[in-house]
Amino acid sequence: MMGAITVDDKLFEEVDQIIDRYAGEETPLLCILQDLNAKFGYLPQPVLQRVSKKLGVPASKVYGVATFYSFLETRPVGKYVIRVCKSTPCHVRGATDVIKILKKELGIKEGETTRDGLFTLEVTSCLGVCGVAPAMMINETTYGNLSEGRIREILALYRQ
Amino acid sequence: MLYRAHVLVEVSSNSVPLGALQIKELFSAEIKRRGLSQEVQVLETGSLGSEIPSPFVVIYPDNVIYAPVHPQDVPRIVEEHLLKGRVVEELRFKTPSSGGVGELVSTFPLQKERRVVLRNSGFIDPNNIEDYIARDGYQALAKVLSSMKPLDVIEEVKASGLLGRGGAGFPTGLKWEFTYKAPGEEKFVVCNADEGEPGTFKDRLILEGDPHSIIEAMTIAGYAVGASKGYIYVRAEYPQSIAHLEKAINQAREYGLLGKDILGSGFSFDIKIRKGAGAYVCGEETALLNSIEGGRGEPRIKPPYPPQKGLWGKPTVINNVETLANIPPIILNGAKWFKNIGTPTCPGTKVFTLTGNIVNAGLIEVPMGITLRELIFEIGGGIPGGRGLKLVQTGGPSGGTMTPELLDVPMAFDTLPKYNSALGSGALTVIDDSHCIVDVVKSFAEFFLHESCGKCTPCRIGNKRIVEILENIERGKGTRESLVLLKALGENMKATAFCGLGQAAPNPLLRCLQVFEEEFAAHVEGKTCPVGVCKLEKKMVYAK
Ligand SMILES: Cc1cc2nc3c(=O)[nH]c(=O)nc-3n(C[C@H](O)[C@H](O)[C@H](O)COP(=O)(O)O)c2cc1C
Ligand code: SF4
Ligand code: FES
C-alpha cells in the first residue's frame, strides 16, 4: 500500500512546497488537496492538519472538502484504484457482471484493497465513456467494452 | 483538399491501450510509402459500439470495417484495398450475431448529420493551433475585437436564438446580457465541463477534438460581458481533455490570442483550468462555483443567480462546452444562418450520445427537431439481437423518459416538455425489453443516492428510501402500499429538494410508475417479475 507515510519534518516540507505553489491563487484549497492526494496516494490526518494550519482554514473545512469528493481519499488505497461504472448505460450492458468478475478476480469487496496493496476496488457513477459500456478506470486510464477475458488481460498488465 | 478515400482509425480511451496510435502511424507511413498521401487521408475516430472489436479501421467511401486490426495487417490493407481496390475479405469485420458482413449503413458524413459544434473534430489535430486557424479558427475573435462592440456581440447571440446546451436550455444571449448589465469591476466567464450525466460524453469529445473552439468562445464571451478572467471546470475523469486544453491554452498565449492585449486590441483575457474531483453535483452551476472556490461542491440558494453574484460574489457567466462551441460559427456566419438550422423556436444542431442497447453506440450531431426513430433506428442501427424497445431515457437520469409511442416527436427543448419529457444534455439511453422496470428505475435511483451532496433532507434521505423500497419490491416484499409511498416520496422530493439534483431525481421513477403500472403491480401483487430479472419467489404467476 502507499500507506506507509511517516510523519516527520520532511513530510511537512513536502506539504509546504505544494501549498506554496499556489501562493498567488485565490482559494486554492481543493487544488492543494488534489496535488497532495496525487503525491501521497491519500490524505493522511497530519497532512490535512498541516494544510489547515498553513492556510489558516479551519480543520473542519479541510476535512469537509477532503471527504466530499470521490477522487480524494482519506484512507490508504492501493497503487491502482479501479473505478467501475455502474450507471444505467453501463448497467444495461452488463456492469453488474463486471463488478462480480472484478470481485472474484481480486478477491475483495467494494471499497477494499487487495492484500498486496496493488488494487483498490470502487464502484462509481458514469465515467463519460458510455459509448464503450461497460467501462472502468484504473488510475487515469479508461477501459471499455469490458468482458471477462478483457478484464483478465487488463489486470495482468498491472500485475506485471 | 479532396481525397478519394478516408481511413478512419479508432483512437479512443478504449483502443489506445490496444495499440491504436501505432496502427494510425503505420497507416500514415505505409500510405506515404505508396505515394498515396495526396489521395488518401488518415483520420482518427471514436468507438462505434461494443460489437466491433478495437482497434478498428473504417475505409470510406467503401464503408468497409476491418477489426480488430493488428500492425501486420496494415501493409496488406493499404496494398490490396487502397492501391488495388480489392477488399481484404479475410480481415474484414463480420458481425458475430448475424454472421453477416459488418458494414456501416451510413456514408461519411452521415446523411442526416450536420456538423456545427463538431466542425473540426476528426478533421484537425487538436494539439496544433495552426490546424484550427487553417479552418477559420480565431477568425470570429478577430472579427469581434476589430469591428464589434460588446453589445453588438450580445445582440448577435440573442438574435441567433441559441439555447444553452447544458440541460436547461436557457437563452445564452440573455444570460450574457444579464452579466453585462450587472454592476461590478471584475467579472468572470466559466466553462462548465463537468459533464457527469450518465450517458453523456459529448463535451469530452469536443474538448478532446477541438479545444481551441472553447478558448476562442470563452474569450469572445469575456469581451461581450466585460470579463478578463475565465475558468474551465473539467471533471477529473477526463485527463485527456485536460491535457489537450492545457496545450491549447499555452499555444493560444504564444500566438497572442489569449493573455494581455489580444491582437493589439487592448482587450485582455486569460483562462485557467480547474479540475473536478469526482462529484456529479458540481455540474450544477452554483455547486461548481463553490468547488472552484475550493470548498465542498454544495449548491447555493438561487437567486441571486451567477450573472448577479457568481464566482467570489462577482458577476459570472457560466456556459456549457457545447453552448460555447456554437459561438464562433454564429459570429462568423451570422444569427440568420444559425436560425435556419433546426426548428424555429429551437435553432441549431444538437449532439446526441447514443448509449445502452443500441447497435451503433456513439455520438452524432444533427439539426434540432430530429426524431428518436431516426436517431435510434436509422443512425443507431436499431436494437441488437432483434429485441423490442422498452424505453429511452433522454438527457440522462435527470432528463425525460420516452416510450415507443413517442418515437416521432421532434426532439427539441420546447417540444419534449409537452410529453412530460425533457431533452436535457442530449444523452439517449436505449433500454430493450429484456430489462425489468423495477431494476432500471432502481439503477437511476442508485445514481442519485450515490451523488446526493447531503445538504438537504428530502434528497439525502429520499433517495435512500426510494432505493430501499425498490430493493424490497425486487425481493418480493413489496405491497400496494410501497407503490403509493414511492409516488408520495417522489412528489415530495420534487417539491422540496434544494437543488436540481434532488428535484429531478424522482422523474424517471414517477414517470415509470405511471407508464409501467402493470409491471409494478405484477411485482407487488403477483410477486413476480414479468421479465424474469428480479429474485422473486415464484409463488404464483400474475394474471391480469
Ligand atoms: C445536478 C445538476 C447537474 C448539472 N450538471 C451539468 C453538467 O455536467 N454540465 C453542464 O453544462 N451543466 C450542468 N448542469 C446545468 C448547469 O447548472 C447550468 O445550467 C449550465 O451549466 C448552464 O450552461 P448553458 O446555459 O450553456 O446550458 C447541471 C445542473 C444540475 C441541477
Ligand atoms: S437536492 Fe440533493 S444535491 Fe441538491 S442540495 Fe439537496 S442534497 Fe444536495
Ligand atoms: S454510464 Fe458508464 S461510463 Fe457512462
Automatic annotation (TrEMBL), chain A:
Enzyme class: oxidoreductase
EC number per UniProt: 1.6.5.9
PROSITE patterns in the record: COMPLEX1_24K
Gene3D superfamilies hit by this protein: Glutaredoxin (3.40.30.10), NADH-quinone oxidoreductase subunit E (1.10.10.1590)
Source domain of life: Bacteria
Gene Ontology MF terms in the entry: NADH dehydrogenase (quinone) (non-electrogenic) activity
Cofactor: [2Fe-2S] cluster
Keyword Magnesium: no
Keywords: 2Fe-2S, Iron, Iron-sulfur, Metal-binding, Oxidoreductase
Family annotation (PANTHER family): BIFURCATING [FEFE] HYDROGENASE GAMMA SUBUNIT (PTHR43342:SF1), NADH-QUINONE OXIDOREDUCTASE, E SUBUNIT (PTHR43342)
Family statement drawn from the similarity comment of this UniProt entry: Belongs to the complex I 24 kDa subunit family.
Protein name in UniProt: NADH-quinone oxidoreductase subunit NuoE
Native source species: Thermatribacter velox
TrEMBL record, chain B:
Xref: InterPro entries: NADH-UbQ_OxRdtase_51kDa_CS, Nuo51_FMN-bd, Nuo51_FMN-bd_sf, Nuop51_4Fe4S-bd, Nuop51_4Fe4S-bd_sf, Soluble_ligand-bd, Thioredoxin-like_sf
Domain NADH-ubiquinone oxidoreductase 51kDa subunit iron-sulphur binding, residue spans: 438-483
Superkingdom, taxonomy of origin: Bacteria
Entry keyword set: 4Fe-4S, Iron, Iron-sulfur, Metal-binding
Pfam families noted in UniProt: Complex1_51K (PF01512), NADH_4Fe-4S (PF10589), SLBB (PF10531)
Annotated family: Belongs to the complex I 51 kDa subunit family.
Listed NCBIfam families: PRK13596.1
Xref: PANTHER family: NADH-QUINONE OXIDOREDUCTASE SUBUNIT F (PTHR43578:SF3)
Protein name: NADH-quinone oxidoreductase subunit NuoF
UniProt lineage: Bacteria, Pseudomonadati, Atribacterota, Atribacteria, Atribacterales
